[in-house]
Amino acid sequence: MSNIFIAGQRWISNPEPDLGLGIILEAEHRRVVIAFPAAEEERTYAAAAAPLSRVLFQVGDDIDVPGQGPLIVTEQQEHGGCIVYFARDENGDVHPVPEQVLSANIKLSNAKERLLAGQVEHYRRFALRAATLEQQNTSQAASTRGLLGPRVQLLPHQMYIAAEVASRAAPRVLLADEVGLGKTIEAGLIIHQLLLLERAKRILIVVPDSLVHQWLVEMLRRFNLKFSIFNEARCQQIDEYEDDPSSIFFDEEESKQKEENPFEDAQLVICPLSWISTHTRRQQQLCDAGWDMLVVDEAHHLQWHEDDDSSVEYKLVERLSAEIASVLLLTATPENAGIDGHFARLRLLDPARYPDLAAFLEEQGHYEEISELIQGLADTPEAALNDADFCQRLEALLGNSQVSSLQNQASTEQLDKTIRDLLDRFGTGRMLFRNTRASVGGFPKRVLHEHPLSVPPGYEQACTTATIEESLHPEQLLGVMWLKTDPRVAWVEKFLLQNPDEKVLLIAADSSAARDLELHLRLRRGIASAVFHEELSLIERDRAAAYFADPEDGAQLLICSEIGSEGRNFQFAQHLILLDLPLNPDLLEQRIGRLDRIGQLGDVNLHVPYYADSAQEKLLLWYRDAVNIFSQPCTVGNALNLEFGDELHAALANTDNAAIKGLIARASAKAVELQEHLRKGRNRLLELNSCQPQRAAELITALEAEQRSDTLAEYLEMLAEQFGLDHEDHSDNAVILRPGDHMITEAFPHLPDDGITGTFDRERALSREDMAYFSWEHPLVISAMDMVMSSDFGSACICTIAVKALKPGTLLLEGFFSPALQAPAWLQLRRYLPAQSFRLVVDQQNRDLSKAVAHSKLNQLAQGVKKTLMPVLLREVRSTITAMIPHIESLAEDACKDWRKEATEAFQAERSSERERLHALMSRNPHVAPQELEIFDQETTIGMTALQSLQLNMSALRLAIVSQ
Ligand SMILES: Nc1ncnc2c1ncn2[C@@H]1O[C@H](COP(=O)(O)OP(=O)(O)OP(=O)(O)O)[C@@H](O)[C@H]1O
């Protein structure tokens, strides 16, 4: 059969056989579109390179038509390229069956046909297939899938969040860890998991311009994910147009059909926020392009107003998040622009849980009470459940049926579930994650260095008519000669000259001040410096950051305007000069976070040069003594601003110091009170939701166990041997792989022409970025495993073994089975199956010897059979093995029944607890539409049906004949 595709034909995908039997929808213009109804997926390929195999049934084959009993093919006829089968039913009646009506669920097993036909391969190939199968099944069922491969330290709080979030069907969460605790990494871990689990294919990341390249690089070097940056120039290459960017000239249906959507050109896309939020045409295309996950970094920039006056950025994300199932919003300072904005972002994520602002504010007042209830259930459940008052309070929230069943039997699972319900429905919610330095631990010290300076001439005079903002930024008041007259400039110069070996980051609010100061220090004083501000192109900014990061020939100083105070990684520096202090405490926290972040190895030295007895000094005192931000992350700064903001403004303007002193005394007392309140209420709830230390520790133990570097090293060696790659030891725990002269495939996926050097050691990979990190999730390893399993490679084997204990002529049939589940990937049903392949060994007396005869033992004993002897040998044993195969298949079917039972029970239990939550939310909140419950139930039915029709497919079969 030629590879000419015709609509209606049935094909299967070679790399993704689990998609089931596909049907060609369209085959035109060198493209082929194929639907896979069992998995609800569709794929489009270039016809010449489509990885598809035609499925044709032969006379005698079983075929399956939905709603009909078993049918056996008696004849096939071709009509216009498609086949009509004639098939007999149980009553002997023959029915015409056009291939289009065949069931999309298909059981594939070629191993037995190949064995019986003598199409067998060397036992080493069989061993490679068996190892591949074992590993694939282990990793597909592992709860840690997607967490193993990234080149990151295994940090408990990140692993917990990533595993928890990715385990949800369509995760929509706010990642709000304190600044620098690794939200980008958490997002990357979640993306990596969803991609590997095939629960997401198209990912859109929207970030502030200054972080575009950092995201690109982090995704590639840590996660092996190749994102594409989309900007106007790139879009123009596909969709050229000359109209005004803000016009939507393609409104008309006709031009809409003609246009090419540039965003369909890539699966993994990063978009700068400023570009996309001002470009109406591209926004429409972005929304039309269809995505599985949206990630928005620095989400506090999405400003919301109740009166529909929200920012364009907010409106864009609101539009996208209504269309896209999974959404991650990232911000270290969620309440940066007030609690309203925080609420609005939560509402974007889960409108059912957050219907209105007033209720949300009200709810916050009860966090302490909820926290108390949770503490009672967690610490002293027996006493709590015997306390009538406690139970009454619990009943008021959860209803009496849940509470009385808890009173009857307070199992750990039930207690845990009740705590989760309280957290989710009445606490900070299950979509908000916030880890703090206090909970994570191990962070460096912040050390404040105050540098009082004398006030320069003209400043005080200028202040009499200036605003507070201006007086905090003397460069705006001192005129064009400010670089000469401002004592902060001389102090910076001196500091740099006295500390020539230290990397120093300087942040100034204003981009022109940053630019002028850098030019001055570089040209006039010869300081190796770079500058980073919004007027530079993205490439220029990254070049500046890279020059600063270079440990040998890099700049001593980087001067940033405020855009450098967010998201960037400068933890290799230990000195931060704050040329001015912002009035917004979150902004100051963001600035400090450039150095005070994961990876910082020393103290974080914070230098504040300021004019003595000026507004600058007062603001410094405010931050030092009231907000306390120079010794620990700021948790109450916004609340203090809300209460004392006006007074602070007045005190900064006041020439007298008494006002600020009094204010600081009151504010610091208030700060203590607020912190205590947070500690008992909100923070405690957040801590409980954001990381469960025991679960995190279990995850890390599991990941360490799954790493199995020795096995992987052996596996790569086997792979290299069988595929003809050159394999060379590099050093301890590291190898080099290169394309060999006798490769059995034209190209090997993810193997560059000049080879790849990789280490199996995570620690080494973290410090040696020139080496790949080889794990079971490295793209080369995954593609190689797919290559093995998507073909018949090594699926059938005949060997001899010499074992004294067994009679010569004994036949041992070893079969490997893998689960076939034809269901949509988003249901992630593999999680409910055992993390292993299924192996059986039987002899010709139908004895089950699976435990007695280990696979590794057979590998050790195996001897090849000469090709010339094979036909004779087969003739002798064919009838015996023809009888053994159904027996081994029936044993597999028995095991499959247990797998089905256990999997459906686990799935059902999880779904009913999810359903309960949805139901409870519905009864509290009229915004949850009843259809949601219906859709949920339909999904459960799909999952149950798929699990009930789980099959164990024979993937590899070996006949071992005991020799003399
Ligand atoms: N598990 C990890 N292993 C190695 N490096 C890490 C890990 N987690 C974070 N880092 C590094 O720590 C730094 C901070 O991480 P990241 O940028 O993800 O933090 P963030 O919370 O997004 O920061 P911000 O609040 O500033 O946006 C980065 O340099 C990152 O590469």
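^ adenosine-5'-triphosphate complex. Residues 151-243+261-353 form a domain with the Rossmann fold fold (CATH 3.40.50.10810). The pocket of adenosine-5'-triphosphate is lined by residues 152-153, 155, 158, 177, 179-185, 332, 567, 569, 593, 597-599 (CB under 6 Å).
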